[in-house]
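Anyone? Bumping this.
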Amino acid sequence: MSAANGPNAEGIAEGTAAPPPIPGTVETPPAGGDDRGRGILKSIATGSSLVAILAVVLSIILGGILIALTDEDVAAASSYFFSRPGDTLGAAWAAASGAYAALFQGAVFNPRADSLALMFRPLTETLTVATPLILAGLGVAVAFRAGLFNIGAQGQIILGAMFAGWIGFSWHLPFGLHLVFVVLAGFVGGALWGFIPGILKARTGAHEVIVTIMLNYIAIYLVGFLLTTPSFQNPGSSNPISPRLDETAVFPQILGPQFRLHLGFLIAIAATYGVWWLLNRSTVGFELRAVGANPFAARTAGISVTKGYVVVMMLAGGLAGLAGVAQVAGTERVLTSGIAASFGFDAITVALLGRSHPWGVFFAGVLFGAFRAGGVQMQTLTGTPIDIVLVVQSLIVLFIAAPPLVKAIFGIERKKKPRKASRAKATVSGGAA
Amino acid sequence: MKLELQGITKRFGSLVANDNIDLVVNPGQVHCLLGENGAGKSTLMNVLYGLYEPTDGRILVDGKPVTFRGPGDAMAAGIGMVHQHFMLIPVFTVAENVALGDEHTKAGGILDLDKTRARIREISDRYGFDVDPDALVEDLPVGVQQRVEIIKALVRKAEVLILDEPTAVLTPQETDELIQIIEELKAGGTAIVFISHKLREVKAVSDVITVIRRGAVVGTVDPSASTGELASMMVGRKVSLSLNKAPATPGETTFTVRNLTVPGAGGQNLVDNVSFDISRGEILAVAGVQGNGQTELTEAILGLHPHASGSVRLNGRELLGMKVKDIIREGVGFVPEDRKVDGLVGSFSIAENMILNWYNEPPFAKGLAMKPAVVLKNAREKVAEFDVRTQSAEAPVSTLSGGNQQKVVLARELSRPLNLFIASQPTRGVDVGSIEFLHKRIVAERDGGTPVMIVSTELDEISELADRIAVLHGGELMGVVPGDTSRDVLGLMMAGMTAEEALGQGPGQNPTPAGEGGTAAGERISGEHAAGEETR
């Protein structure tokens, strides 16, 4: 096997050298055609952080252009663009910068508030919104690291919220103990919804993407249905809303009653650290990463790939379930069919932007939280539709999915096969010694 | 047609894959490109074939400069290439494969294969290829598939034929046939570029040898040069080609395989009723053409084939049915055939790969928590001990050269007490300099009293290491013969003859066939083999 081939021929060689699938064994890691797609998705999920940052910058610039294009003042000034182009450009700048300033005011710091504490209220709002994004994002990221695409965070959040909510309003336990049960139930609910695709993948090879998407639908309609049954629906109400959670079952607000920021945020920090430790410092994480990076080598080293799939999906589901807990016991305090909003789908974006690294996910979650929290303020103050935030978020994902595009726009030279270069270096030093 | 490459340079970023290479290929000449893996042979040929654009330099055909924008241009100019991995569609017939990309059509765009069939027969008869145009490619032996590739090039009127590592997948007999075909083509005026790193065949087939090292031509030599000379040119320093291992002193037989069968998907058995023994302190080498059940045999021993039947006993314990993890704990060291796929996690650091299958054992882990400092310390020690050339033990293992990657795998497997050591293709894709080192470590493991099983498709390696040789063909054991059995006999066995038949047909050295897996016979023959070693 000659390794002298350049990138092209080597690709061919690697393609054909894939070992034949072993008949009749479920233990066999995903074979053949699936691998290439997996490789691409994996590189999207775990690429360089520079691309992530540049993608954000680029998206914000493009978002600014969009804001300017849809602004009325800009439209008015553009009617006499050729006589006084400065007016148009000035109006465009004013529109974009005004909108983003409002976004910042709504997301981080509001200098016009009455007291210093209230000035920082937007930041606490950002962190409140970020909490479920971080937790669910971790759930998606941890599965990514084991080579699985957990599209099911939405359903796992719902199941987590359902379990936690039910314990919260139907059990009546003392303060502290009740909350522990609520949190545990949420984790278990999410883990259950992760266990199903995990075990199906391990036992039958069913693709986790399809299974998790279907489980999302099941979860959405399941919670909708349960909220019409007596055990979940608030007595005396015809709306699909549960009773309020007991006071003993909700997260305390950690900065006092004027801020919504609750204990869930501290759980998100702890979970981020926990996932980091688990992935990078524990034997379980070693197994999961090995399974994700090369299931064939993992199998040969005696690591059970199938067990890895089940464990990681339960963990992923559990983390997303905690996001559900943060929603039902932190922010909403009642169970509704819209409890998960679109957090489960945004979590995929968050995991992508965070490069599937726990702290990357944390900061990506905070950023998206800021977009959400600030978007409202932006719409109220400047009339810029909040949808622009969604556009910016989507652009971020789009750019992350196409690293060469981002690099080309910023004029970063594409490194040609750095792997080959360093290999050559090793050979050179080998020959010299 | 005379083909010249002048000052060809190809850079990938900062890496210079080809550095100012000059090459002249004359009609009716076999020009051999000799170089280690990674020396830049294939890159050069891909430049010539129009797959890469050279950074610098030019290509001349009959003295006129040409530019190739793709393989199509190269083919039109009369250059044909047989890739190492065949570019054939298995479910198509020979004629369909040959026609592909160059189809003759009747009115209305209907495919006219008759013309192609006629051309195939013509070429086949002329060079004695013996290829049926209507056979399905997937039914053909590898050697014949290779001829289909050559026919593809000839049908397109190739006057220069590039053969990229053509013997990698052939039996010794098929290699001989290929060399004959090359002679025929040469006599017909075709120029041939023969790419290889195997010294023996290079010497046998070529008229001119150009040696390439680290992307640059180090010299052009006559085939009469000694193999030692060629090897040191390739590697850039003196290498010893023979191992000079001490005779084996086999101890008690601790590893026995009985009636091992691995069922395949299509109903046929990938490993069919195979039995053999290995004693402490001896190396059993398993020979065979690639894809004849060797891979499955080793994988079944490691527990990777849950449907395997029969018996695999190590120190009296039945391994079959145990989990891979437990088999590794029984003291089985395993070097898989394809280290990049099965042996290493490319994105993991060298340190992590060094503990890939004992990451959760002390001292590397305590409970759930791993100990990165211990892991790193272990890696630094092993890097030094096994002479892994790297700047850091924390570098991803994918940044290492093939030889150094293999040292990582070997370091991991040989660094714990073993009761059985299995290595598949231990030196495939490894530079000549590292081969020596790896072989010495394997022999050292044998001398430490471990039963060793080596699987290799390279006969040179088999005869270098083996105390006894088992030959597999179509998943069946053709016999176990002494380590100094001649290449001819081994070749016949690899083609499907039993040991008895092959010895009857062969040149008749070694008149003593070893009993299939018989311990007593094996030990007796090991003794004889030892005597042979000393006189060599």
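Late reply, but here is one note on the structure posted above: Residues 26 and 316 of chain B are 63 Å apart (CA to CA).
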